[in-house]
Design goal:
This protein is of the alpha+beta class and 131 residues long. It has six helices and three strands, in the order ααααββαβα. Helices cover 53% and strands 16% of the residues. β1 and β2 form a beta hairpin. α2 runs antiparallel to α3 (37-51). It is globular, with a radius of gyration of 15 Å. 20% of the residues are buried.
Length: 131
């Protein structure tokens, strides 16, 4: 990702705290280096709580939802994947609870030990969503 693309995703965002400024810098670095998708999501939710500007992260939210997904695995084997949909989540914990509810109730996975991992969609999946 280029600096110009990042400027479009994170326009005029002004964190309220030094922790928020650190999160913004971390997120920019992760995007520039194709960093860990889970860290991108963590930074996003951290900024969401720090900004007090509900619409400021809309472009970033849209990008995350187009390019990331959640891998669902049990005992080392992938059993499902979910599109990343932030929905009404206000923080990372709330988001994870919603994802687990989706897996347990909507997808009816009854494995006793489920792990979730954020990952980038394959190029074909991400580009098909853009069209």
């Amino acid at each position: 990702m280029t600096h110009e693309e990042i400027a479009e995703l994170l326009p005029s965002i002004t964190p309220k705290t030094s922790e928020g400024a650190d999160l913004l810098l971390d997120l920019r670095e992760l995007l520039l280096s194709d960093g860990h998708p889970g860290k991108c999501v963590r930074c996003f939710f951290g900024l969401m709580g720090d900004l007090g500007q509900p619409g400021a992260l809309a472009p970033m939210r849209s990008w995350l939802e187009r390019h990331l997904e959640i891998e669902v695995s049990s005992q080392g084997q992938e059993i499902d994947s979910l599109d990343l949909q932030i929905g009404t989540a206000t923080d990372l914990e709330d988001f994870c609870h919603q994802a687990i509810t989706t897996i347990r109730m909507d997808r009816h996975h009854r494995h006793s030990n489920i792990q979730l991992r954020f990952r980038f969609k394959t190029t074909n999946q991400a580009s098909s969503i853009n069209t």
